[in-house]
Amino acid sequence: MFRKTTIFKAAAVLFAPFAAGAQTAPHNPSAQTSTVLQGQSIRVDYSAPSLLGRKILGDLIPIDKIWGLGDATAAILKTPIELKIGDVNVPAGTYALYSAITPKGYWLIINKQTKQSGQDYDQGLDLGRIRLNNNDTDGPIERFLVDFEYTHDKKTELHLKWGYAESWVHITAQ
Q1: Measured between alpha carbons, how far is 170 from 112 in angstroms, rounded to an integer?
Q2: Which residues contact 131 (CB under 8 A, 6 or more apart)?
Q3: What does the DSSP assignment read for 19-73?
Q4: Alpha carbon of 150 to those of 5, 34, 58, 147: distances in Å?
Q5: Number of C-alpha atoms within 13 angstroms, CB side, residue 20?
Q6: Is 158 strand, coil or helix?
Q7: For 169, which DSSP code?
Q8: Is the distance from CB of 136 to CB of 164 less than 8 angstroms?
Q9: What whole-number distance in Å separates Cα of residue 148 and Cα of residue 166?
Q10: Residues near 128 by Cβ (< 8 Å), separated by ≥ 6?
Q11: What is the pLDDT of residues 25-57, one digit of tens each?
């Protein structure tokens, strides 16, 4: 009996990655990140899909198309204070976040419509578009991650990490 249980457990460990990679619609759990600027909490709610052995560019994230950060639903930015994200002034409020990958670079899109899915998008409601800075990561990041980094008093950076890529933008409280 011990031997059958041990063999079954070993097989489960060995074949689990193949079964996970075969999934066509992986679960996109909800995630949240926040930071404090000038005593006020800034928050982003998003979905966090996993790679599961898939290719990001062209497969999971379309090229030359708008992508809702996290895909299942548009990411939502909530800020009680006015921000400057890149070169875009963002009044206090709630906004949807999208991205686009084009031959001219990676873009963060801030949109005023917040009740839509990650696939619904109305360009007429864009507050602005910001070109993102890009870095390579040291290794693959399995689950999509949105994070605030280098936060000091009035300034922070919003980082988007997945696979071998990281994109980021400066944010300043106004």
Answers
A1: 20
A2: 86, 104, 105, 106, 107
A3: HHHT-SS----EEEEEEEETTEEEEEEEE--B-TT--TBTTTB-BTSEEETTSSB
A4: 48, 13, 31, 10
A5: 14
A6: strand
A7: E
A8: yes
A9: 12
A10: 85, 86, 87, 88, 89, 90, 109, 110
A11: 456 889 999 999 999 999 999 999 888 887 777
Cβ neighbour number for residue 159 with a 10 Å cutoff:
19
Write the single-letter amino acid at 59.
D
Residue 119 to residues 74, 96, 98, Cα–Cα distance (Å): 8, 12, 10
- pTM metric for this prediction: 0.79
Burial degree of 5 (CB within 10 A; 0-12, 13-18, 19+): exposed
Contact 57, 67 (CB under 8 A): no
Any idea where the domains of the chain sit in the sequence? 25-173
Per-residue pLDDT tens for 140-151?
Answer: 899 999 999 999
Residue 160 β-bridge partners: 146, 167
State the Cα–Cα distance between residues 79 and 66, nearest whole angstrom.
23
